[in-house]
Amino acid sequence: MSKYRNHPVVRNIVDGLTELNLPQISWSKDVLVASLDGECQANTEPGNVCIALHFNFDLEDEEYGEHVQIVTVESCIKGGGTGLVSVVMDCLPEDMKVCVYDSTEGEAKSFWPKMAAKYPNIVRY
């Protein structure tokens, strides 16, 4: 069980993702995975939409302090990734930093600069 499961920021994110009707929301240590159908992997399954988030509220990064790391965003549905990221970003305090490590390929190279322009608290991608 994640030690962050009841953290107010995490609860806001889970509530936001639940509103997207993502039926699979699960934890693996401190990583929250929300998906439409299946696991979050570098190559998404047809029909899957998925986001994996790693929370780091205790160990402060020297440069960014407490932050959320977006590990992976996958969507084979046009606009699905933007929707997932928007829900997460809208649930965060404005001063909470977000770092991205996205193992997916393809549009990710142009996707994250667009998201960083929209959400200034995305500080590393």
What are the salient characteristics of this protein?
125 residues, alpha/beta, globular
Structure write-up:
The protein has 125 residues and is α/β, with parallel strands linked by helices. A 6-stranded mixed beta sheet has the order 1-2-3-4-5-6, covered by helices on one side. 26% of the residues are buried. The mean pLDDT is 77.
Q: How would you summarize this macromolecular structure in one to three sentences?
A:
The protein is of the alpha/beta class.
Helix content: 25-40%
Shape: globular
Distance between the termini: 28 Å
Write down the domain tally: 1
SSE order: HEEEEHEHE
Cα-atom Rg, whole angstroms?
13 Å
Which structural category fits the helices and strands?
Answer: alpha/beta
Number of strands: 6
Main sheet: strands, sense, barrel: 6 strands, mixed
Count of DSSP H/I helices: 3
Q: In what range is the share of β-strand residues? A: 25-35%
Unreliable residue stretches: none
Q: Could you tell me the mean pLDDT?
A: 77
**Spatial strand sequence of the major β-sheet:** 1-2-3-4-5-6
Strand and helix map with partners:
Blueprint: H1 8-18, E1 24-28, E2 31-35, E3 49-61, E4 65-75, H2 80-91, E5 97-100, H3 108-118, E6 122-124
Parallel strand pairs: 4-5, 5-6
Antiparallel strand pairs: 1-2, 2-3, 3-4
Helix pairs in contact: 1-2
